[in-house]
Amino acid sequence: MxxxxxxxxxxxxxxxxxxxxxxxxxxxxxxxxEPSFEWAEDHGGVFELLFVLTDDGGGVTxxxxxxxxxxxxxxxxxxxxxxxxxxxxxxxxxxxQPAGR
Length: 101
Hints:
globular; alpha+beta; 4-stranded mixed β-sheet
């Protein structure tokens, strides 16, 4: 997601509700809220959220930069539920930087 992308705009563009559970309708802030994504990983500066939307495995992956300008609710949800990324799920090196930096 780009900086200054609001939560509603992000959800509309991605087609997935991040702050609302797709099954039972609980919302972020409700005591029984559980997110609809299958898993979330923290890649150290970028969160990865995976939503499986169909029985055959089709879905959406959101990459959310951990930086100012990103919707605070989205960042709160991502940081609350994200696990540290596993080595086999590492993000590719940024353009112009060698891997491992």
